[in-house]
Automatic annotation (TrEMBL):
<feature type="repeat" description="TPR">
    <location>
        <begin position="172"/>
        <end position="205"/>
    </location>
</feature>
<dbReference type="Pfam" id="PF13432">
    <property type="entry name" value="TPR_16"/>
</dbReference>
<keyword id="KW-0802">TPR repeat</keyword>
<dbReference type="InterPro" id="IPR011990">
    <property type="entry name" value="TPR-like_helical_dom_sf"/>
</dbReference>
<dbReference type="InterPro" id="IPR019734">
    <property type="entry name" value="TPR_rpt"/>
</dbReference>
<protein>
    <submittedName>
        <fullName>Flp pilus assembly protein TadD</fullName>
    </submittedName>
</protein>
Length: 283
């Protein structure tokens, strides 16, 4: 209804202006255009952030047919392609955004993010290195850490992860990533500490809970950590511990943990049942 009212209002204004131009009418015209511009910006934000990703892609593509150089529409399309999981297309779309004269440093950060999603680590690194060092944001340093990880530059990765964690009030995700980096390096105690910290910021983050169990299991600590968990999560964590124990040759412990997983799950836990049956069949 708001759009209809505005269009009607503008049409009426145009008709009035065609007859004569009274003092102040130019200001009214500008005010109307400001309202329309703000309305379009709000719609772009809605489509880019909360609308169905497929519908958003169609919306921005239609807009670009009439305004191919509009960076807001280019940015909206690129972000919507990322949300839709169409990462290869998103890389090209973000490249077009970053070639626009009005592109920002944050646009380049998101371009690097898209490149990482398709495994183009070297290109992502080049994009990040071209961003001025004065652009210090959580997203930039999180990606810098991931690139350093990929290059096995552990000291740089640790420095970037620490900086990123300090630039956000919700560091659970980056702490979990940092912990996983430590886990892959074999620093199990360091990983355990970071996963535990991640969970303190977000007790619902199951990925960190599962990774914490992996880090403890790698040290042959097969007790569940004292963290908040649902019955289903408890069963899944027992299952993870069981597989870790079996992989390390602690088959008897693994069998017991599989039984714990089966008993803890509120429903039939088929993966744990199959694993236990296979072990028992082997004797």
């Amino acid at each position: 209804m708001r759009h209809v009212f505005l269009v009607a209002f503008c049409a009426a204004g145009a008709l009035a202006l065609s007859g004569c131009q009274r003092p102040g009418e130019a200001d009214v015209d500008r005010a109307i255009q400001d309202v329309l511009s703000g309305d379009e910006s709000a719609m772009n934000d809605i489509m880019m952030n909360v609308a169905d990703p497929g519908e958003a892609v169609s919306y921005f593509r239609r807009g670009l047919e009439g305004q191919p150089e509009n960076i807001a529409l280019q940015r909206g399309l690129a972000q919507s392609l990322l949300r839709a999981g169409r990462n290869t297309e998103a890389v090209g779309a973000w490249a077009r955004v970053t070639n626009h004269p009005e592109a920002t440093a944050e646009d380049r950060v998101t371009h690097a993010d898209a490149l990482i999603r398709v495994g183009e680590w070297k290109k992502a690194e080049a994009v990040l290195h071209a961003i001025p060092p004065t652009h210090e944001t959580y997203r930039r340093y999180r990606l810098e850490a991931m690139v350093a990880d990929a290059n096995k530059q552990w000291a740089k990765a640790d420095s970037f992860y620490e900086t990123a964690a300090g630039l956000t009030t919700r560091p659970s995700g980056v702490l979990n990533n940092w912990g996983y980096s430590k886990l892959t390096r074999g620093d199990f105690k360091g990983a355990e500490r970071l996963f535990t910290e991640a969970i303190t910021y977000d007790p619902s983050l199951f990925t960190a809970k599962n990774n914490l169990v992996l880090a403890r299991g790698a040290q042959r600590n097969y007790d569940l950590p004292v963290v908040r968990m649902t019955p289903t999560e408890r069963a899944q964590l027992y299952h993870t511990l069981a597989l870790t124990a079996i992989k390390q040759g602690d088959v008897g412990i693994g069998k017991g943990l599989l039984q714990e997983a089966i008993d803890a799950h509120p429903q039939y836990f088929e993966p744990a049942v199959r694993a236990l049956e296979a072990l028992e069949a082997r004797g």
